[in-house]
Amino acid sequence: MYTYQYPRAALTVDAIVYVVEPESIWVLLIKRGKDPFKDKWALPGGFIDMDETLEEACKRELFEETGLKVEAMIQFKAFDAINRDPRHRTISEVFSVQLNEKKTVAGGDDAALAAWFPITELPGLAFDHQLILKQFFNK
């Protein structure tokens, strides 16, 4: 293992899980159970482990926080605004997956709840997740 004398950014992943229906697009969100942003809604996600790829980390975090398993995800974009996380410098790689229907989900790990929201009726979101969804859906 290497030791570095200079600061390094933390690397996280976030999952955009969505369902397209004739009347609306539904997005899966989790209610954060811990600070920062405790009780605010957010995309499922979290920190990567040292022995996994970004996609593996995203699928793991999605399962831990919602109980939802997916086979594959599509890499969307990295978000790297300097102050996007109040804890420290954090860069997040965002992945997406479109499902055919809304699946049953439940909050787990550090997510107090998991629920589906219409894209037109999103609650206030933690971090820069509103911006992420706006860019993803071009809204």
What's this entry about, in short?
Helix content is 16%, strand content 35%.
Low-confidence stretches: none
Give the count of helical stretches.
2
What's the number of structural domains?
1
Coarse morphology: globular
In terms of DSSP E residues, the strand content is: 25-35%
- DSSP strand tally: 7
CATH overall fold name = Nucleoside Triphosphate Pyrophosphohydrolase
Mean pLDDT: 95
Name the CATH homologous superfamily.
Nucleoside Triphosphate Pyrophosphohydrolase
Provide the gyration radius in Å: 15 Å
Largest sheet: 7 strands, mixed
Residue share in helices?
Answer: 10-25%
Structural category: alpha+beta
N-to-C series of helices and strands? EEEEHEEEH
CATH class: Alpha Beta
Distance between the termini: 43 Å
CATH architecture call: Alpha-Beta Complex
Describe this structure as you would to a colleague.
- The chain has one domain (15-137): Nucleoside Triphosphate Pyrophosphohydrolase (Alpha-Beta Complex), CATH 3.90.79.
- It contains two helices and seven strands; from the N terminus they run ββββαβββα.
- The chain has helices at 54-66, 129-137, and strands at 10-20, 25-32, 41-42, 45-47, 74-79, 90-99, 111-118.
- Strands 1, 2, 3, 4, 5, 6 and 7 form a seven-stranded mixed beta sheet that branches.
- A hairpin with an 8-residue loop joins strand 2 (25-32) and strand 3.
- The longest helix has 13 residues, at 54-66.
- It is globular and about 55 Å long.
- The termini are far apart.
- The mean pLDDT is 95.
